[in-house]
Amino acid sequence: MTPVRILVVDDDPEVRTLLQRCFELEGYEVLEAADGVTMRRIIDQGPVALITLDLKLGGEDGLSLAREVRATRTIPIIMITGKDDPVDRVVGLEVGADDYIAKPFHLREVLARVRAVLRRSPQSGPPLNPAEAVVAERGFGFDGFILVPSRRELKNPAGQVIPLTTAEFNMLIMFLERPGRVLSRDSMMDILKGHDWSPLDRSIDTLVGRVRKKIEANVEEPRFIKTVRGVGYAFAAQVSSL
C-alpha cells in the first residue's frame, strides 16, 4: 500500500524533525515545509492526506495559509501552535482547520489526533471491496441535497458539488443521522470526538455556522439547522435514506 503522506509546515526545524521522526515511526511518509511557498509547491506536486500547520510562521500567517488551502482543497488540517487562546482556536476552525493542538505537546496526543482526523477523512481510508462499495454508495437526501458519505460528496439541488472539510462533513453526517432530535453542545462534542473542544469557547457554534453557509440560502434565517435556545441545535428538514 502507498504510505499516507503528511505535510508538516513549521518554521522551527527542531519541531519539524520531531514530528517527522514521530510520524515515520508510525509508517507515514512525511514531507516538510518551513514556509508557505514550499507548502504550496508540495501540495501541487502530489496528494497529501493531512497537513499539520503552525499558526505563526516566520513570514506568513498560518491562518491565512489554512484559508488559502481550504478555498480549493479538502485536505484535513491540524493547527499546531504555541498559542492556547480559545479565540485562536475558534478562528482556526472558522478558516477550516479540523483540529487544534497547542505547544508544548505530547507526541502521543499528536498521533492520536492525526489518527482520529485521518479516520474521519474518507479519502484516507483503505480501498473498498466491491461488496462494501455498493453499501458505501448509499447516502442521505434532504430538500434536494444529496450527501454520499463514501465520496464525502454533497450536491445541492442544482447538482453542483459543495466542498466540505472533514469537520463540516462529520457535523453534517451527525445531523442527518439524527433528524429532528435536539442535540446539546455537550452531546455534539461527544459525538464529534477528536477535536479540542472546550465548553468555554464557541467552537461548536463556529462549526455550525460553517455548515450553514454550505447548505442554507439565508444563514440569518436557517431552514435546516435550527438553534434551540439554551440547549443546542436540531436538524429540521426531512431526511431520506438513498
Strand content: 15-25%
What spatial form do the alpha-carbon principal axes imply? globular
User: Whole-Å distance between the termini?
Assistant: 32 Å
Helix/strand order, N-terminal first:
EHEHEHEHEHHEEEEHEHHEEE
Helix content: 25-40%
Task: Describe what this molecule looks like in 3D.
By secondary structure, the chain is an alpha/beta fold. It has helices spanning 13-25, 36-45, 62-72, 86-94, 107-119, 130-136, 166-176, 185-191, 203-215; strands at residues 5-9, 29-33, 50-54, 77-81, 99-102, 140-142, 145-148, 153-155, 161-162, 183-184, 225-228, 232-235, 240-241. The protein has a 5-stranded parallel β-sheet, with helices on both faces.
Question: Could you provide a short overview of the structure?
Answer:
The chain is an alpha/beta fold.
Any descriptors?
242 residues, alpha/beta, Rossmann fold, Arc Repressor Mutant, subunit A, 5-stranded antiparallel beta sheet, 20% strand, globular
